[in-house]
Design brief:
Elements lengths: L9 E3 L8 E3 L12 H9 L3
Antiparallel strand pairs: 1-2
Length: 47
């Protein structure tokens, strides 16, 4: 995988465990969580 070709990359959390990866994200890309509970209730049909 060439790093410069991807905006996102999977980073090994534990080099000995190839299954355990994390996705690197920029904080600006994350959605605001002020209405997280309401959104979860809506998605789960609990509203």
């Amino acid at each position: 995988m060439k790093q410069n070709e991807f905006k996102k990359q999977l980073v090994p959390m534990n080099p000995d465990n190839q299954v355990n990866y994390k996705l690197t994200l920029n904080i600006k890309e994350l959605k605001e969580i002020t209405n997280l509970i309401k959104e979860l209730e809506r998605v789960l049909g609990l509203d």
